[in-house]
Write a structure and sequence with these properties.
By secondary structure, the protein is an alpha/beta fold. It is built from 13 helices and 9 strands. Helix 7 links the parallel strand 5 and strand 6.
Length: about 300
């Protein structure tokens, strides 16, 4: 036995589960050039303008516009217009340009899932099924806790992950218990819904409250993400266990050595051995089952 009855395991979204297929500056510039714009403007110039536009929009309308009553489409439309405004008068942008970019970054057209995500969730689903049949095994509830707007839901679904209906904004209206386990992800907590962004404790508390709508409360909470301050320290500050997922070369071995007290992994398959309820031997068994199924 693991010493706890239910594990609540949550993940960051962007940079943890999925990433843009190509640099955003390139996508913006390519779409503009398709409409005959920016022929003499480099991708780097577009990238700098995009970063400035994003920073300004976050200042003017924090938390994806939540603070000023703006929805995500309006918020990102402003970013797109501001990105192109140094090069093209906003009034002359082709009518289709903004919707095309909005649609691209609402789905798998604009994003790729990391290669280890789908295999990990298949293994996790098998472990959850076993826990439903064997009362000695702790149950596992899976969620996403992310600083984002509601685009995350459509992105995850389009990338092949099934997402349950539970969101923080629904809790007050619909607090009754809900079945879990049928979806890869049982619930999603968005900063837009909560009104607070990680690393604020409030967004992790919202996730904890949301799990009360399932058939038994969690008694161990783990959050996995790709940033130290936002994900790891945010989780630890809320009384959770944080795990840093190293997705790129931004952390070298020397930097990681300095963070000796920060538990980190280089891929999701390493997560099972360290934190999931079943033993390391069981974890490798599940991996072998999936390999046999694919062969």
């Amino acid at each position: 036995m693991s010493g706890y009855r239910r594990l609540v395991l949550t993940f960051d979204a962007f940079g943890t589960l999925f990433i843009p297929k190509e640099p955003i500056a390139k996508s913006y510039a390519d779409v503009a050039r398709k409409y005959g714009l920016l022929s003499d403007i480099s991708n780097d110039q577009v990238g700098l303008s995009f970063r400035d536009a994003l920073k300004q929009q976050r200042t003017n309308a924090p938390n994806y516009g939540k603070e000023v009553g703006m929805n995500s489409s309006q918020w990102w439309s402003n970013v797109i217009h501001s990105t192109f405004s140094p090069f093209v008068p906003s009034t002359t942008l082709p009518e289709q340009l903004v919707p095309e970019l909005l649609n691209r970054y609402n789905s798998s057209e604009g994003y790729d899932v990391y290669p280890d995500v789908r295999p990990f969730f298949r293994i996790l689903q098998k472990m959850r099924e076993d826990a439903q049949r064997d009362s000695t095994l702790p149950k596992i509830t899976v969620g996403v806790v992310t600083n984002s707007d509601d685009r995350v839901l459509s992105i995850l679904s389009s990338l092949g992950l099934t997402v349950g209906p539970q969101r923080h904004r629904m809790l007050a209206k619909n607090p009754e218990q809900h079945p879990e386990g049928a979806a890869d992800i049982d619930f999603v907590v968005l900063s837009y819904d909560v009104g607070f962004e990680k690393p604020a404790r409030e967004i992790f508390d919202a996730a904890r409250d949301l799990t009360l709508s399932f058939d038994s409360p969690g008694d161990r909470f783990i959050h996995v993400g790709d940033t130290v301050t936002v994900d790891y320290q945010g989780a630890e500050g809320a009384g959770w266990d944080g795990i840093l997922l190293v997705r790129d070369n931004s952390f070298n071995i020397r930097e990681l050595a300095k963070m000796a007290k920060v538990p980190y992994i280089y891929g999701l398959e390493k997560l099972g051995v360290h934190v999931l309820p079943q033993s390391a031997e069981s974890w490798w068994k599940y991996r072998q089952i999936l390999r046999d199924q694919r062969s």
